[in-house]
Design brief:
elongated; GMP Synthetase, Chain A, domain 3; alpha+beta; 3 strands
Length: about 90
């Protein structure tokens, strides 16, 4: 990946916040890898958000809601920084 693209990605990860702690997803290492396909103009983000350890139904719902919020914010940030790109989550 070229240095300019990497710099933009690092800035996005520093800017997007986890909604509960308000710390950046970069600081929390919630995105473990970003893959870019220039041919497809697409980014694939590999998330590192674990399932709750407890078998509590509410915990699972809260975790899923937080993950969707983070993914939405990341998608908007990537689309703003890289117009016309696709963003996929794994």
């Amino acid at each position: 990946m070229d240095p300019e693209t990497q710099k933009k990605i690092d800035a996005i990860l520093a800017r997007v916040k986890e909604p509960e702690t308000r710390r950046s997803v970069g600081d929390l290492s919630l995105v473990k890898r970003v893959r870019y396909s220039a041919r497809e103009h697409a980014f694939e983000l590999f998330m590192d958000i674990a399932d709750p350890r407890a078998s509590c139904l509410v915990c699972g719902v809260v975790t899923a809601t937080i993950q969707r919020s983070i993914e939405r914010d990341l998608q908007l940030a990537f689309e703003r920084e890289f117009p016309g790109c696709r963003v996929l989550f794994s």
